[in-house]
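tool=predict chain=A
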Amino acid sequence: MSTARDTYPIDISGVKRDLALFEVKPGLRIAVLNILGDTELVEAAGKALAAKLAALEYDLLVTAEAKSIPLAHAVAVHAGKRYIVLRKSYKPYMGRTIEAETLSITTGKPQTLYLDEKDVALVRGRRVVLIDDVISTGSTLQGMRLVLSKAEAIVVAEAAILTEGERSQWENIVALGHLPLFTE
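tool=predict ok
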């Protein structure tokens, strides 16, 4: 049985979506963007972000798993760059990782990001752009920055499809749009 939800419309490079609003705590709802499987939106966003980043000198894109992986791939294809994924769980084949802990806004619990041993040499001393689907609190960005600082990478920009919340705190983010918070 389906229940109707309020929605918020977005337009990303001509691709329109109505994002469902979900209550995250009493009196506060957010518009949820889930790009997994939405190849049309991911492709449009990847192309647009690659164009916005074209004037920057950078070597690699870095994202955290999982929802922003398709976006990082699309940006990388359009920009002609490689991308690296920071993992959220450790696997033995990852070897000696570099890691940092942050607080997940999604779960409300601490989350650790891991840079695979095979990727450490790829980022060391390189200019990187951090990519995320939506930046809400910045906690994932903070975790990515910590890992990359430990790996001696140089973060030159941070990018997302959308930012969310107080617009002024995201002025330095390369983004394609902004989502308000919905309070009652």
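The helical segments are 39-53, 69-79, 117-123, 139-150. The radius of gyration is 17 Å.
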